[in-house]
Amino acid sequence: MPTFFTLVWGRLRGSSWWRRVHLRAAVAGVAVSTVVLLAGSAVILPLEENAPGATITSYPLALWWSIETATTVGYGDLYPVTAGGRVVAAVVMVVGITTFSVVTAALATGFVSRATRDLHRLGADVRRFEQNHADGLAEQLRAMHERFDRLENRLDQRG
């Protein structure tokens, strides 16, 4: 029986918007971030849990630590005290910053490409309108100029 995740994944892969690179990059970034957070928590726990003065003593705490480290929040409530724990922390920080940057850039690219596509469509619509109504617009402009000329002449005569 397929899980919810496999059903959603199957729908995403089959959709037209999935073919766009920026969306695949965002999903890949989220997947990498998730793996790094879970792996960082699993790796740091045995290094830290029995160390003197350790603050990371359970998997839930390790998971919370990896989330706040990867997102660079760093409340200071949880921190590694061993050399191995600090190496893991550095890896989680670098990978976290990098993957969150990739996700942000990918989403921004998606928004910009959508806006660009909309602007191109709008420009095409304006050009099409101008082509279809150029004669009528020119005639209206000529009529307005004639009216302004008459008004200017009247103002000059009153003078």
UniProtKB/TrEMBL annotation:
Organism of provenance: Streptomyces hazeniae
Pfam families in alphabetical order: Ion_trans_2
Acyltransferase among keywords: no
Domain (Potassium channel) ranges: 35-109
Subcellular location: Membrane
Annotated TM spans: 21-45, 87-112
An example Gene Ontology biological process: monoatomic ion transmembrane transport
The protein's name: Potassium channel family protein
Membrane topology: Multi-pass membrane protein
Gene3D superfamilies tied to this protein: 1.10.287.70, 1.20.5.110
Classification via PANTHER family: POTASSIUM VOLTAGE-GATED CHANNEL PROTEIN SHAB, VOLTAGE-GATED POTASSIUM CHANNEL
Keyword field: Ion channel, Ion transport, Membrane, Transmembrane, Transmembrane helix, Transport
InterPro entries: K_chnl_dom, VG_K_chnl
Main location group: membrane
